[in-house]
């Protein structure tokens, strides 16, 4: 089937069409979820215990460095000081099967964070909490533990992203 003669004039090669669509998408502000770059307002931030990769502070440091933020290597020279005062995971069984095995768990990550500016501003302290439900099927104990560990890592990343958004909003 061929196009009518009037439409042949408007036919664009595929690469040009792709380029036009890309320009239109970027012009409207479209971006993939999770790909927002942190703002330069976070430059000069020092994260206490950021070298511990299995904590919210470690995940936050990794996310900021990956986003191009220039973190302060020295606590004394930093514009802002960020600290996770308390980080606590808890788990609660929501339902069990006939044999008493847990089918549904509720995972809760609670973190108390503090942001202090060197300019003499009062320290801002906040308590953040994430709750997730995790359903298990079968009796694979090792699989359940691995799935729980993966969910905990995912919750840390989500909390770090939430902290970044809150810091950016507060520092603007």
Task: List the topology elements.
Blueprint: H1 5-8, H2 14-27, E1 45-47, H3 56-66, E2 80-96, E3 102-117, E4 124-135, H4 141-171
Overall description:
- The chain has helices spanning 5-8, 14-27, 56-66, 141-171, and strands at residues 45-47, 80-96, 102-117, 124-135.
- It has a single domain, classed as 2-Layer Sandwich (Double Stranded RNA Binding Domain).
- The radius of gyration is 23 Å and the shape is flat.
- The protein is of the alpha+beta class and 172 residues long.
- Helix 3 (56-66) crosses helix 4.
- It holds the Pfam family LptE.
- InterPro entries: LPS_assembly_LptE.
Helix content: 25-40%
Q: Could you tell me the radius of gyration in angstroms?
A: 23 Å
CATH superfamily, please?
A: Lipoprotein like domain
The CATH architecture is: 2-Layer Sandwich
Q: What is the beta-strand fraction?
A: 25-35%
Low-pLDDT regions: none
The CATH topology comes to Double Stranded RNA Binding Domain
Strand order of the largest sheet: 1-2-3-4
CATH class assignment: Alpha Beta
- The tally of strands reads 4
Q: Which class do the helix and strand fractions yield?
A: alpha+beta
Instruction: Please give the alpha-carbon distance between the first and last residues.
Output: 57 Å
Summarize model confidence as the mean pLDDT.
82
Shape, principal axes of CA atoms: flat
Number of H- or I-type helical stretches: 4
Major sheet description: 4 strands, mixed
In a few lines, what is going on in this structure?
This protein is of the alpha+beta class.
Keywords for this entry:
about 170 residues, about 30% strand, about 35% helix, Double Stranded RNA Binding Domain
